[in-house]
Write a structure and sequence with these properties.
Length: about 500
């Protein structure tokens, strides 16, 4: 879905009264700010997303021993924590602007009759809307299907392009032989269109059954339908293996496609003596790997060991501190000119401060971050562009150029920035400016979609955002990187 590109430019000299120019608090007059690059904003957001989702996972191997529990034999899943499996920045919906696809591994720990943990994957799409990167849509896949439920496994997600569209494809598959002969699979193919994921093919969730179910007519018919669809999007090798094996899943044989992650596992070290000895050691173990790939097919983040578990990202008194510190450190790593400045201010009065970063260059603008419920969310503004009323949860974002200007009012709700008022003013046609008898440009004004005079506009803005209470970020106080980290730790 096409999103308006935010132009972080702001007021040049105009005929507004002093009160009206509140819409340009903290912004430099007679300055024109460059348009923020969508690709760069999304790339920057990946670092923040990694911080809120538990960090990047690593390509690694796992080796799982069998355990006896009750009358059953199991093996525990590997000790991975929640985190990013992969991201891609592409124009998924062909609207001319890129989107960010993120795959997030979710770990769930349960305590019933025994401690246990399982995994699922969130498929998330982010878009730029004005100065915000927002999550446009999300769905869950592979619930309790990854990492070792069976004795063999092959699961993953990849992208393929066909007929001018990008298809997101994935499946989770495992087979088991201990106790019974069974298989389990879950597959999907989707696109991203008009702001949401659109399923093009799906098994409708996980399907479990005996290994002989491939011989059933209904199973073979469903497999033929999947194969026929895969042919239409150019995955002919995948379609061929579906027809051959009647398994409604991907075998990841079209290696030319953009593979994001792959899980492979098999039972090794097993001996037939188990059936006479009953010794778990005779079952061997499940050895496997999690492999992450970049868009060029290179393996990412290689580790020789299982990724250690990390602390939960749920809210605690100080849970916001490390995500802020990591974000500051990542940002400052690109601070080649030494012009970045940082500030903490509690805009919404929840005792967790918002983090404001001024990048010191008009093309980069500034950024405001808030933290709640274990997640960070950011909003991009112009240089010195933070204007707020402390403790009243009100933020003013003003900008524009070439006789087209805006004043947007935001509040913070449930950890996200929510726009509550929308004002705009400027020339009705800035390619054909009209002037009054005094030689001033004639501007038109609109507040929340209602046309009005300059005086009415000023009154509407001042009623919502009291100029007597307003604070501009340009007044500071500011820290450098080390200073704000100390301030965060001591907050």
């Amino acid at each position: 879905m096409r999103k308006k590109k935010g132009v972080i430019a702001v007021a040049v000299a105009c005929t507004l009264s002093t009160a009206s120019t509140l819409g340009a608090i903290g912004l430099l007059q007679n300055s024109v700010y460059a348009e923020t690059n969508d690709q760069a904003m999304l790339e920057s957001y990946v670092d923040m997303l990694a911080g809120t989702e538990g960090g990047w996972l690593q390509s690694s191997n796992f080796d799982l021993s069998f355990i006896q529990y009750g009358n059953g034999i199991f093996h525990e899943p590997p000790d991975y924590s929640s985190g990013l499996l992969g991201t891609r920045i592409q124009d998924f919906d062909n609207d001319g602007a890129p989107e960010l696809l993120a795959l997030v591994l979710n770990r769930e720990d349960t305590v019933s009759d025994r401690e246990y943990h399982y995994f699922s994957v969130s498929v998330q799409m982010y878009e730029r809307q004005d100065y915000l990167i927002t999550k446009a849509d999300e769905f869950q896949i592979f619930n309790e299907s990854l990492f070792g439920y069976g004795t063999t496994e092959e699961s993953g997600v990849f992208l393929t392009e066909s007929n001018g569209k990008i298809f997101i494809c994935g499946s989770a598959y495992y087979s088991a032989w201990i106790g019974s002969d069974g298989i389990s699979y879950e597959s999907f193919v989707c696109t991203y269109e008009n702001g949401s994921f659109q399923m093009q093919y799906t098994t409708g969730g996980r399907i479990d059954g005996p290994g002989i179910m491939q011989e059933e007519d209904y199973y073979q018919q469903d497999a033929q339908e999947m194969a026929a669809f895969l042919d239409t999007i150019g995955l002919r090798n995948e379609a061929a293996q579906v027809r051959e094996n009647y398994d409604q899943r991907f075998a990841f044989v079209d290696k030319q496609e953009d593979l994001i992650f792959l899980v492979e596992a098999d039972n090794t070290g097993r001996t037939d003596q188990y059936w006479t000895t009953g010794a778990l050691a005779d079952l061997g173990s499940i050895t496997g790997s999690l492999t992450l790939y970049d868009k060029y097919g290179n393996i990412l983040n290689v580790s020789d060991t299982i990724v250690n578990a990390i602390p939960s990202s749920e809210n605690t008194e100080d849970s916001w501190k490390q995500p802020y510190i990591s974000y500051v450190q990542n940002a400052d790593a690109s601070n080649e000119l030494g012009v970045y400045s940082y500030m903490l201010v509690d805009i919404n009065g929840d005792a967790i401060p918002e983090l404001y970063i001024d990048y010191g260059i008009s093309a980069y603008g500034s950024e405001l971050l808030t933290y709640a419920n274990g997640s960070m969310v950011s909003m991009n503004l112009a240089v010195w562009g933070l204007n707020y009323i402390e403790g009243e949860n009100l933020i003013l974002s003003s900008g524009g150029s070439m006789d087209v200007y805006y004043d947007k009012i935001y509040t913070i709700e449930n950890g996200t920035f929510v726009q509550i008022h929308d004002g705009s003013w400027g020339a009705e046609d800035n390619s054909n400016l009209q002037f009054d008898e005094n030689g001033n440009i004639q501007y038109v004004y609109s507040w929340d979609g209602v046309s009005m005079s300059q005086e009415e506009y000023t009154a509407a803005l001042n009623t919502v955002f009291d100029p007597e209470k307003a604070i501009s970020a340009s007044t500071g106080p500011y820290y450098n990187c080390n200073g704000v980290i100390d301030a965060i730790n001591n907050y």
